[in-house]
């Protein structure tokens, strides 16, 4: 037969057979020491359970981990930090445009475009953290918008130069 302390521990964990269970129950009705042990152990178990339950695990935890792993894998594949690259390209283009003598009248437009670009980059970085494929779409859109702006700026400059 198992030692009574061992039996009580198993009793608390609900790991006893019906016969063993009855044996423990009969014993703790007669032995104050063991009754106290049962009470202490079950209180401890309850506390652990309550503590465990009080730790909130978000429902989308698994998804969050999966997406962050995916993100890291993707980052590992292409080590170029795209928001920085595209941001630099935009800055260089804007700097060249601003420095050209024809640019003065276009400054307002350029600063507006710059703001839009920065906002797009901000959104893009946020999306990158959530959905990598969406991020690629946003970058594609930003590049398209950039091309359109550069083309329309050129047209504007050329028109003004002719006048
Ligand atoms: Zn006892």
TrEMBL record:
Residues 5-34 form the Putative zinc-finger domain. The keyword Membrane applies. Keywords: Membrane, Transmembrane, Transmembrane helix. InterPro entries: Anti_sigma_zinc_sf (IPR041916), Znf_put (IPR027383). The chain crosses the membrane at residues 84-117, 129-153. The lineage of its organism: Bacteria, Bacillati, Bacillota, Bacilli, Bacillales. This is Anti-sigma-W factor RsiW. Pfam families: zf-HC2 (PF13490). Belongs to the zinc-associated anti-sigma factor (ZAS) superfamily. Anti-sigma-W factor family. Signal peptide: none annotated.
């Amino acid at each position: 037969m198992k030692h009574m302390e061992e039996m009580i521990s198993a009793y608390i964990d609900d790991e006893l057979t019906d016969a063993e269970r009855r044996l423990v129950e009969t014993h703790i009705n007669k032995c104050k020491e063991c009754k106290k042990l049962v009470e202490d152990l079950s209180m401890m178990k309850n506390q652990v359970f309550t503590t465990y339950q009080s730790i909130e695990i978000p429902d989308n935890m698994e998804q969050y981990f999966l997406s962050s792993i995916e993100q890291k894998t993707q980052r590992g594949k292409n080590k170029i930090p795209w928001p920085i690259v595209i941001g630099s390209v935009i800055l260089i283009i804007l700097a060249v445009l601003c420095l050209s003598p024809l640019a003065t009248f276009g400054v307002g437009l350029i600063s507006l475009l710059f703001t839009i670009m920065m906002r797009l980059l901000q959104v893009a970085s946020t999306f990158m953290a959530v959905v990598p494929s969406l991020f690629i779409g946003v970058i594609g859109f930003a590049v398209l918008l950039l091309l359109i702006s550069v083309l329309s700026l050129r047209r504007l400059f050329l028109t003004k130069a002719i006048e």
